[in-house]
Amino acid sequence: MTLPWLSLADDTQFPPIEHAFEDGLVAAGGDLSPKRLLNAYQHGLFPWFNKGDPILWWSPNPRMVLFTDQIKISKSLNKTLKSSSLIITFDRAFEDVMTACSQPRTDLTDDPNNDTWIHPEMIEAYVGLHQQGYAHSIECWQDDELVGGLYGIAIGHMFFGESMFSRVRDSSKIALVTLCQQLSRWGFKMIDCQVYSEHLASLGAKEIEQGEFITNINKLCQQDIPSAQWRLDSDLPKAL
Predict the structure, then answer these.
(1) φ and ψ at residue 211, rounded to 5 degrees
(2) Are 146 and 166 within 8 A, CB to CB?
(3) Pair 26, 45: CB distance under 8 Å
(4) Residue 170: which of 76, 66, 106, 69 has the closest Cα?
(5) Which of 61, 85, 231, 229 is nearest to 169 (CA)?
(6) Is CATH 3.40.50.2300 what the domain over 63-229 is classified as, yes or no?
């Protein structure tokens, strides 16, 4: 099977994800324009490629997802939530979070995205989506220093997670718990986690079939949410 190449002239069309290769690769080429990126996410695809390589578009099957009401808080994490002095914010330092996620790290050694895929071209594209109100970051602060967080894309009531980082123990976990608790209040049912990792599985994420994933995003992406709503409730995160 030949890998389809996308035209720069048409940023709306992708091959059917049912035609993906066994590893989930669907197409190559195109660009990272906001319109193309948003269209890709709404069709179950995401870009993932190393610096200097062609843009590659993926839709793995099965798909790793986290239902926001199924976040798993271990006893040790719950204890940390009760005692933590971390300050959690939304959208205060989006580019800094992306840059931190791009650095080599040892806290997520089983993360298949733990390589060089968050490079300047990707950062520029997602900062553009952030400026348009689609890309969001969750930050963890300790003494005014950014020590953990994550970022992703929100379309309607669907959140597409991209990457996370942690510089102090459990900071990325606290960011994810906070995100789940806030999104659940807003009616977001599911976070796309893309591919399996033990780290995400330990927090309650699981794999579902591609058809179920597409059914969910088709429904959730159509539900509007005011952009001004991206403010964290003052009582979050909550321990059990």
Answers:
(1) -60, -40
(2) no
(3) yes
(4) 76
(5) 85
(6) no
For residue 226, what pLDDT band results from cuts at 50, 70 and 90?
low
pLDDT tens digit string along 24-35?
A: 999 999 999 999
Domain with CATH 3.30.70.3550 in the chain: 5-58
Residue in the block written with tokens 């993926």: 58
pTM: 0.94
